[in-house]
Design brief:
Layout: E1 2-4, E2 9-11, E3 36-48, E4 59-65, E5 71-78, E6 88-94, E7 108-115, E8 122-129, E9 134-141, E10 154-157, H1 162-167
Parallel strand pairs: 3-9, 8-10
Antiparallel strand pairs: 1-2, 3-6, 4-5, 4-7, 7-8
Length: about 170
Amino acid sequence: MKYNPFDGKTYKARNKNNIFSLEQAAQNEAPPLPPEQEVGYLSVSVFTASGALPVEGALVTVYVLDESGTENEVVHHVSDANGKVPLITLPVIYNRFDPFESSQYYFTTYNLRVQAINYYTVNVLDLRIFPNTTTYFQIDMIPAAIGPRDGTDTTIVIPPSPIDISND
């Protein structure tokens, strides 16, 4: 058995020398078309409230939720002295040949969490990443009050657009 790293499948070798002639290749079989996998980009900058000063050392985490609600981390970075993290590359997966699976505008949704010491956490839910497009976010962190905290973290939910609702 041989493992093909390009499609993640295991195949039984037909020719021990792994040399095939054109006559041995299947003439009428076309491989099924895989879903398109392109990438989109996310640029994140972290600042204090109203964008006054950059926040160094903020943990920026991109994650997705599975069916059970468990967070699966995709990537995380720490902001530099300018409040920036490296450009994040994220897969955008769709099947352009399946109109029931894909809408007119192709995107994949992710969630974003930004945490920093002495600041309240900021969550951005349902962030859309489009293929070959950079999405920019400037996160403004609110300094944490001294004393007990009572749920003053910020959560931003990006609502569906009318086109999303019409394609359901």
